[in-house]
Design a protein that fits this description.
single chain; mainly alpha; Ferritin; globular; 0% strand
Length: 208
């Protein structure tokens, strides 16, 4: 006899699929960074990031009820990047947007989801330290680079909002009772705090 998956469970699976797709796209973008000229020690620090993102995508997919492979994230209107620092900013912005979505899921009723979210959030602290240190290295000696990257961060954010509308999904799940009422606000608070750290790394905190 065929069973019907509750709507809110389908919505959670849809969000998990979109997070996995964002992680896979971030992996490709991190790989693209490695093809561009960069500072001496950057390659060794950045090379594990893409593999980490692909493992996270696999773990997220395994948590879905149907375990279907995620559909690729749309690249329509994605900012073009030909500089190493620009490519890194775009990859990091997408990586952390997906991480913010997991912040919204960390108190989900499903313990598999909460355990996964906590695991990835812990791992992502390492990604943040690596990339923020790289941004300090490229922008610190060159204030104009920091200002340019700050503008590109806003462009990346605008593309990600369209390609990966996770905030609306989280709010809908909370409204349906599938996530705690403050899930969307937790997502927002994570990104707000991280945004300040990025601006500080770029030397533009308080200027935007």
């Amino acid at each position: 006899m065929e069973t019907t998956v509750p709507v809110r469970h389908r919505q959670l699976d849809q969000l998990l699929g979109e997070i996995a797709a964002a992680k896979l796209a971030a992996a490709d973008l991190y790989d693209a960074c490695l093809t561009l000229p960069m500072a001496g020690g950057s390659r060794a620090r950045l090379s594990p990031l893409a593999d980490d993102e692909r493992v996270q995508a696999m773990l997220i997919t395994a948590t879905r009820t149907d375990q279907e492979q995620p559909m690729p994230l749309s690249t329509v209107s994605r900012p073009a990047t030909s500089r190493f620092d620009s490519a890194l900013m775009l990859a990091f912005a997408l990586d952390q947007a997906a991480t913010a979505a997991l912040v919204g899921l960390r108190n989900a009723p499903d313990p598999r989801v909460t355990t996964l979210a906590e695991h990835i959030l812990t791992a992502e602290q390492g990604h943040q330290e690596i990339v923020l240190a790289e941004l300090v290295a490229v922008a610190g000696p060159h204030p104009e680079v920091g200002r340019r990257l700050a503008r590109e961060m806003i462009e990346a954010r605008d593309w990600i909002k369209v390609a990966f509308p996770r905030r609306n999904r989280i709010a809908a799940l909370a409204a349906a009772g599938a996530l705690p009422a403050g899930a969307a606000q937790a997502h927002d608070a994570f990104l707000g705090s991280l945004g300040d750290r990025i601006q500080e790394a770029l030397g533009v905190l308080g200027d935007l």
